[in-house]
Amino acid sequence: MCIFGLLFVLIAFDYGASQSMEGGDSLTTSIVGLEQLLETENFLIQNLENYANELEEKLLVIRSVITSLREENGKARENSQYYISIPTNVFSLVRRLQKDWIYLDIYMRQSVGDAQTKILREQWSHLPKESDLVEAVQAISRLQDTYDLKAADLANGVINGRTYDTNLSSLDCYTLGYELFNQKEYISAGYWLYTALQLYGEDEITKLHNLNQYKLMELYAETLLRQFRHQDALSVINAMFVLPTLQPPESNLIHKRIELEKHIQIYNPQPVIHPKTEPNAYQRGCRGEYASRRPMLYCLYNTTTTAYLKLAPIKMEIVSLDPYMVMFHDVISDEEIGTLQDMARPVLKRATVYSEEYKRSKVVASRTSKFAWFADNRNEVTTRINKRIADMTGFDLFGSELLQVMNYGLGGHYSTHYDFFNVSMTTDIVAKQGDRKATVLFYMTDVEQGGATVFPNIETAIFPKKGTAVMWYNLNNQYVGDYKTLHAGCPVLVGSKWVTNKWIRERNQVFRLPCYKE
């Protein structure tokens, strides 16, 4: 292997392989992982049906035996003296009681569904862990904060003003409220628990979870207390005393009501007002508020960056001059997108962020997605895309980072950050090829709602459009990090977001960019 190929492998290890050492994998952070969950659920449902079929088969056998035995016993009891006066009847009666019931006892003791139980246990490793559930709750909460979504709307299938064929059950809402309560997010927890109470209806699943109105109201009252809404909490507790499940009233609930009434009588606490917070610059961009503010610069057919573009010009849109940012339209085909996705699906790993403190990449909560790295010469498609990036940007890609294909899952996002490392040039990650001069980001899918790339410091938002790419300079003319390039990937609200990144390093651009002038 040549030294340059080895460099690419080392970069890929630094940015990708270390993921397996930090935080493990996650099922909810990519659409690919969620598709696998659907297949697992379908398999488990079929396994449960097989279990039910075995139970039904055993039940049919027992019902048939009962019918046969009851028929003979009923005939005997109509005239018992006559029945037992016949020797063959007596023999049959003795045989039945001495033999049949022994075998029935054996049959009744036989376990049903052992095979299905074994299969279910073998699937444990493929099921979401507690950490996956916590991440899913955090994702829903993130979507609510970013897009100002209400719990009741989400429960009824209304997502950001649009109605979808979906709904959350009372158990879903209770779980969200319970987990948020544990995370001390009492206001959000209160909304979800209230919604759970509104939707509550006893069914077989809630029975399995041992969830009833009493438990719901008890947690809701405690949540109101944590919000310092004492009078509201007392109202909920009083309502609990008329529940049919509370027979007789539990002593701890009586004690809690007495203590709360005393507290209200002595201190007369006023409810704490929680004013609605104004959206920050990032949230406004995610909600589409920057669309009308985006400056109308100009579009052109780029024919000058490289000689090849004289034959095949690229559609280019100038988005910003400071920092320099452009969009390229129709620069990646459906066939190329499909190839990259097929390459990535089996090797996607949890995305990481380089940590200067630890000198390596780490899994962080601020970045929820999965990625895969591919060498520039991996195949014809990666080679062609890298050549196209060189034509689009005019940069020398030698020594730059590998192609990174990324897929976002439930509430997938990347909070505000800079692409440049902003570290000493002696630091290992930049010592050889320099810092990240430019970023090229291909959008491989349309996203129905959310998923924008937002630059809050310049009030600009780029919404994903399949086949387009956006490029911006991370370093200014002095090769110093440009803080106007602060950006973020907004949470995906509805849809699947696939992107491909290319970070271009500065060292080999010395003859590609003009000299800096004061």
Set out the fold topology.
Blueprint: H1 3-15, H2 31-78, H3 80-84, H4 87-109, H5 114-122, H6 130-147, H7 151-155, E1 158-159, E2 162-163, H8 170-182, H9 186-199, H10 204-208, H11 213-226, H12 230-240, H13 251-267, H14 281-286, E3 299-302, E4 314-321, E5 324-329, H15 334-344, E6 349-350, E7 353-355, E8 360-362, E9 367-368, E10 370-374, H16 380-393, E11 403-408, E12 413-417, H17 428-431, E13 436-443, E14 449-450, E15 453-455, E16 460-462, E17 469-473, E18 487-489, E19 492-494, E20 497-505
Antiparallel strand pairs: 1-2, 3-4, 4-5, 5-17, 6-10, 7-8, 9-12, 10-11, 11-20, 12-18, 13-17, 13-20, 14-19, 15-16, 15-18
Helix pairs in contact: 2-5, 8-9, 9-11, 11-12, 12-13
Description:
The protein is of the alpha+beta class and 518 residues long. The protein has 3 domains: 244 residues, Sandwich (Jelly Rolls), CATH 2.60.120.620; 59 residues, no CATH class; 119 residues, Serine Threonine Protein Phosphatase 5, Tetratricopeptide repeat (Alpha Horseshoe), CATH 1.25.40.10. Helix content is 44%, strand content 16%. It contains 17 helices and 20 strands. The strands form 5 sheets. The protein has a 9-stranded antiparallel sheet with strand order 3-4-5-17-13-20-11-10-6, with helices on one face. The protein has a 5-stranded antiparallel sheet with strand order 9-12-18-15-16. Strands 1-2 form a two-stranded antiparallel sheet. Helix 2 packs antiparallel against helix 5, helix 8 packs antiparallel against helix 9 and helix 11 runs antiparallel to helix 12. It is extended. The N terminus is likely disordered.
